[in-house]
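for the recovery benchmark. tokens below, seq after
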């Protein structure tokens, strides 16, 4: 582990070369993000969430019915 970007870049290039030559694996990733939301919140449509911040993509449409 290092924070030196030059060293990190060299290491990533070495890794890339090994992967190209040996094809040791196919990298697949699927992140599952689950959120619990109160039934009181309306207008919430999460759709496709790639990152935790995406859950707020349409926050301007969320509302809670209230009495005046």
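predicted aa per position
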């Amino acid at each position: 582990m290092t924070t030196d970007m030059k060293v990190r870049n060299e290491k990533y290039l070495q890794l890339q070369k090994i992967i190209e030559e040996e094809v040791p694996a196919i990298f697949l990733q699927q992140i599952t993000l689950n959120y619990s939301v109160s039934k009181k919140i309306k207008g919430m449509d999460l759709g496709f969430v790639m990152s935790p911040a995406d859950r707020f993509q349409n926050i301007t449409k969320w509302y809670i019915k209230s009495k005046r």
